[in-house]
Amino acid sequence: MNRLIALAFFATLIAIPTMTLAHEGVRLSAEEGQTWYRGNMHTHSHWSDGDDYLESIALWYQEHDYQFLVFTDHNVLATVERWVQVGKTKGGQTAYKKLKQNFPEWVEERVDGDKLEVRLRQFPEVAARFNKPGEYLLIQGEEISDRAEGKPIHMNVHNVEELIAPQGGRTVFETIENNVRAVQAQREATGKPMFVHLNHPNFGFAVTAEQLMRVRGERFFEVYNGHPHVANTGDAEHPGTERIWDIILAQRIAALDMPIMFGLAVDDGHNYHNIPSRASEPGRGWVEVLAKELTPEALIESLEAGRFYSSSGVALKLVESSDKQLVVEVEAQPGEEYTIEFVGTRESADLTGKPITDDEGKPKHITYTYSDAIGETLQTSQGNSASYTFAGDELYVRARITSSKPHPNPSEVGDFEQAWTQPVRGPAAPKHEHE
Ligand SMILES: [Zn+2]
Ligand SMILES: [Zn+2]
């Protein structure tokens, strides 16, 4: 390649638009060397409190049309020698029989007295067996499982190289921040792209919008988690994750001068054998990432640029934004009808939050209450596609698409299949954002 062609080539690379800057626009559609890759970014196994072996879980996702999967066991990487007693594993005989059936030549076992033991295959072994360029990719992750103020603070790091111990902190805010710093430090030290997301903020109602919004370097959180005990939609006192998202977006753009936060949908799978009801089964929530290739580097680059959407069942064909409008097209399924809602906040919205206090007037550990103008539904459309034209005063706009089809295996009773686009900065957002 001569120098001129090389320059032109790099110029086109640099010209790829991102979703994070105001008015630049984005077009998410499978064309011109870009492919949608479906992945789950929250997975438990026998390495912590899941009830199946890594290789059996990898097989499940491969057979269910996923292209990537991140293993995120609690405070452990599958990179050490470990033997487990079959009778004492969460999956017991059920998981063992499936393992033997699917991988007859591969299981390493030994008998100690009357106890049958199996060696847990390590991440590099499983990845070597399953990874296929362009088709399927296993990524090493970890659920950094910390605590602060008596609350569980869980954060997933993706493409991690070395185990990150929970960093602790005096407050929820400080603990999230300390763990983000630890991931950033490892990323810098290794030169390997990795990133961290805040898990299930409403699990134990641990994380409030006010704490999360101020953490610099935290740009991802779970707007949907398939575990039935994480209160995605909140309760009488606590707002749901979408409300938390809108509060964070409005505050970050209008008051804090911080980048927008992206919303992920994940499984948080623990139960792979349909044993208990209301279990945390795989296949409920995922992301569709538009990337130039199926590598951790390309996926992370696209995620960080907002080139993805999140789903609990609805597939999208196109998400396109310009300085004038935001357009969404659904990959429609026969017999389903779609409601496309555009949600956003206008610059006139009152951003003042009021703490919820106890009988003695002390603020409770709950997200503040705010005006309904934060996260208002700006437009509701029916059909397989819809476009929203900016009025000019929007700080940001995002779309939520809901199918008429009830979720076949819902995280919360009554859920319908949905998809969530990432927010786009609106005409009223400051032109530049700072990290
Ligand atoms: Zn967790
Ligand atoms: Zn988890």
SSE layout:
Elements: H1 3-14, E1 26-28, E2 35-40, H2 54-63, E3 68-71, E4 83-85, H3 92-102, E5 109-112, E6 115-119, H4 123-130, E7 137-148, E8 151-158, H5 172-190, E9 195-198, H6 209-213, E10 220-225, H7 241-256, E11 262-266, E12 286-291, H8 296-304, E13 308-311, E14 316-321, E15 325-330, E16 338-346, E17 376-382, E18 385-389, E19 394-406, E20 416-421, E21 424-425
The structure holds zinc ion (ZN) (2 copies).
One zinc ion binds next to loops.
Region (Disordered): 401-435
Signal peptide: 1-22
GO molecular function, one term: 5'-3' RNA exonuclease activity
In short:
With 435 residues, the protein is of the alpha+beta class. It is built from eight helices and 21 strands.
Distinct ligands, ions and cofactors found in the model? zinc ion
Query: What is the second-level CATH architecture?
Result: Alpha-Beta Barrel
Number of strands: 21
Helix content: 10-25%
The biggest beta sheet, please?
A: 12 strands, mixed
Spatial gap, N to C terminus: 36 Å
Per CATH, the superfamily is Metal-dependent hydrolases
Query: How many helices does DSSP assign?
Result: 8
Unreliable sequence segments: 1-22
Helix-strand category: alpha+beta
Strand content: 25-35%
From the spread of the alpha carbons, the general shape counts as: globular
Order of helices and strands: HEEHEEHEEHEEHEHEHEEHEEEEEEEEE
Determine Rg (CA atoms, Å). Answer: 22 Å
According to CATH, the fold-level topology is: TIM Barrel
CATH class group = Alpha Beta
For the record, the count of structural domains works out to 1
Mean pLDDT: 93
Protein name: PHP domain protein
Signal peptide: 1-22
Region (Disordered): 401-435
InterPro entries: PHP_domain, Pol/histidinol_Pase-like
